Fold each of these.
Amino acid sequence: MSIALFIQHRFSERWKDHLTTLLPDQKIEIYPEIENPDMVEYAISWKHEMGVFSQFKNLKVIASLGAGVHHILKDESISKEIKVTRIVDDQLQKDMASFVLTQCLNVSRNIFQYLRQQENKEWKLSTYKTPEETKVGILGMGVLGKATAQLLHQNGFQVLGWSRSKKEIDHITTYEASELNQFLSQTEILVCLLPITKATIGIVNHEIFNQLPKGSSFINVARGELVEDADLLQALEKKQLNWAILDVFKEEPLPEDHLFWEHPKVVITPHSASLTNPKTASKQLAENYLRLEEKKDLLNVVDRERGY
Ligand code: NDP
Ligand code: OXD
């Protein structure tokens, strides 16, 4: 049995080294250098080429290198028998939470505005709201949403969370699917941390923006496919939204001619809110491989029907 890595743009050699340290006797190959495809039972994917797995007849598990799994689930050629797992990792949660906290402070303390002013040597002071006066609403209260909510709360923000099912989380005001309107009407900084599913593609559209208080801001750290870009641009034009901080896009890298690049109210980061850390995350990839060998239940298995 062997492990194969199908990792685009994500430092394959580094992952191989970490896995080799944990599984020293194990054959670990990097696609396309695979000696015998029939030996591969465990694949690790980050944005693999669609259809590539059909040549691996004995594949049993595809592990996502990230928390997101849409890049795997959208590949319809993958047999339903194959289990899909994802990364759930403390470091990933901490990094996401600190990224969102940073952006919320940048918004509330007018830092983005001052950076724009600096381009014009403009000295103009603005009042600001403290975290205690600012309500942050998080769409998606899963592993990353919860960690982010807690860090925001610890730093004084008022935090609201919305998810499919109702949650009880200390200090966080939670809303379930049917309570979206109530959640939005209070949210001043909207953070998207939903997975891509059939129900969530395009969910962040004009209907959502129009229910936020005027002058709110939006932070997307989930996926570009969740947002209607034209509606976002319109909400910025109308000043319904003040800032859009975007880490993820439908097409990545963001094409050079995309309107977001030059928009004065859009802040772009290159899908870097929280990068899976090879040192911490390779442990669960190795553990799942051993579990597969020992025919034990795997960790962090994705519900393929639900989509996350
Ligand atoms: P989880 O699966 O742990 O959480 C998903 C949350 O979304 C759950 O609370 C779930 O509700 C909720 N949800 C799903 N569908 C719906 C729906 N239709 N309506 C309302 N709520 C819904 O995911 P993670 O927190 O681990 O990750 C979230 C996403 O973050 C990933 O899918 C990935 O795309 C993105 N990500 C981005 C990174 C970056 O660097 N930019 C890094 C890592 C991840 P319920 O709890 O009721 O099931
Ligand atoms: C992930 C990501 O899903 O980095 O982990 O986007």
Note: The first strand starts at residue 2 and ends at 7.
Amino acid sequence: MPKTKILVVEDEKEISELLQYNLEKEGYQVVQAYDGQTALKKAEQENPHLIVLDLMLPEIDGLELCRYLKQAEKTRRIPIIMLTAKSEEADVIVGLKLGADDYVTKPFSPKILLERIKTVLRRIAEKSSAGKMRTLSGLTIDTVKYKVIYGGKEIVLTNIEFSILEFLSRHPGRVYSRDQIMDGAWKEGKFIVDRAVDVHVLALRKKLGKAAHLIETVRGIGYRFHDVESSDA
Ligand code: CA
């Protein structure tokens, strides 16, 4: 069986080697890049299963790189876990908005990072094996191709936005708290802050455009997917 390949983007050699050592010990294949330019090239050529991306990089910084990777057709489905410094909290929100899947704050324990990697990979695997398509109020959600279609047009979402939409749409009309959304859309582990759910929902609505009303805010509680039965009558 081919090994799961992880691209580590980190300019500090010591940290990069520490990561390589720990990842290889867990059975992963590691590809390293010490700068953004090389990272882009390797992300395209090596087609890794996941990218660990340090935000502090020379020349092209991590966020810029994240933006590019999440926009390019070839790389936009590769999950990204960001490595951030404590002082970069604002960057975390930006990164998540750009489509990064999770983050770990430096200094981190390799064990924690390994857990996050496993969780993200498992989430992706579950998503692709669930395999079905549902259409609600004209919005089609394809969980095999990660595609969302509305009015004949594809709406391109990040992994997390897609997960939230897919999760809410399982039970139209049912209200979910931010905690439940985190648990449901992220499966195991609450690695992100409450407000990140709001950030993602905001971005999701913006992308949905005319279908934005399908994600309803329930004040004081959370969010729900529009229920056709109750309000279209
Ligand atoms: Ca760095």
Note: The two ends are 53 Å apart (CA to CA).
